[in-house]
Design brief:
flat, mainly alpha
């Protein structure tokens, strides 16, 4: 039962950070777009440095399908595996929070 409460607290903190940083990023982008529209300038897309990911995307998508199917199969085998989805969800949210923080730091 203690693992449940730890997950609730960690999930709550990560959820609040996720929402706060998401709203801040949305408002920043909205402000930038409105300022750009008010100035009459056309947006400039910097596409340099972007790799052609079409070759690796298929393998990443296939891997995601295989792993998610594996998690679903494990859920049917034993009740112990029901801890996997919350851990994966919190881990994904932590990754998004980290991405928001990295993006904010790179804009400074």
């Amino acid at each position: 039962m203690i693992a449940f409460w730890i997950a609730v607290v960690v999930g709550g903190v990560v959820g609040v950070l996720y929402l706060a940083l998401g709203v801040q990023a949305f408002l920043r982008v909205r402000r930038d777009v409105l300022a750009l529209a008010a100035s009459g300038e056309a947006p400039v897309l910097d596409l340099e440095g972007l790799d052609d990911d079409t070759a690796t995307f298929t393998w990443k998508a296939l891997g995601a399908v295989v792993l998610s199917t594996s998690v679903i199969v494990l859920l049917g085998l034993n009740g112990l595996f029901w801890y996997i989805p919350p851990v994966l969800a919190i881990g994904s949210a932590v990754a998004v929070v980290a991405a928001f923080l990295i993006d904010r730091r790179s804009l400074r």
